[in-house]
Amino acid sequence: MLKDFYDKHKNFSFRTSTEYNISPGIKCKFDLLKANLNSKRIFENAIDLGSSGNSILFFLDKIKQRNFYDIADLPLKQYTDINFCHPLCGDLVKLPYRDKSFDLLTALDVLEHIKDDETAVSEISRILKKNAIIVITVPHRMDFYTNQDRIIGHYRRYEISGIISLFEKYHLKNIKIFGVYGRLMKIADIQSTNPHKTEQSLINLRLRYERNLAFRRFWDFIVGLLTKFMKLDAKFHSLKNIMNLALIFKKQY
């Protein structure tokens, strides 16, 4: 079960907003999403599906109410005592929200983990108001599927035409598409050679960053440099060669 996967793999469950500072991949992704969303609109009620502990909603302004929904309990605990933040644990194919509840929804690297992704998309559409904005990221092209995808629980990678058609079926119109990760993300395949060691190394990195000021300054420099390379990699590759995509949709009615 998906919940068992995240309860077992603590690298995902232990994530906090600090992840933006220690992971070039997450920093690259969030920066590109913020730049491309670039909305002056004030959102009344936003939700991040599959939020983990490092939600994009903390990095977006002009949101009045923030909701966090995840299948794992542990990462949601940090949101419980923050004003205007509402965490809830559950399954994405059975969302416990009323129809037309939200005007902004994010689901970053989530749909590929869900076996019945069509039901998930229908639920996403159901809880959105007319003209709501949806931001998703997904791994691109089954031709790029590797053992690393299997290890981290991916049922699939998506073709552009397929993901757009799926969302349009539920009245969600694509208004923008762009690359998040280019070919540099192939380095992630190295992690599949020893996934348990990789997971523990990432947990140790997180702890060292939080506890050691000198290391934190050094790592900030490294992350900043790598993030620049990743952004350039995503910018100058054609979409057909992009490893991970971002898509922005708008609810039609």
UniProtKB/TrEMBL annotation:
Gene3D superfamilies: Vaccinia Virus protein VP39. Residues 85-136 form the Methyltransferase type domain. Pfam families: Methyltransf_11. GO terms for molecular function: S-adenosylmethionine-dependent methyltransferase activity. This is Methyltransferase type 11 domain-containing protein. It comes from marine sediment metagenome.
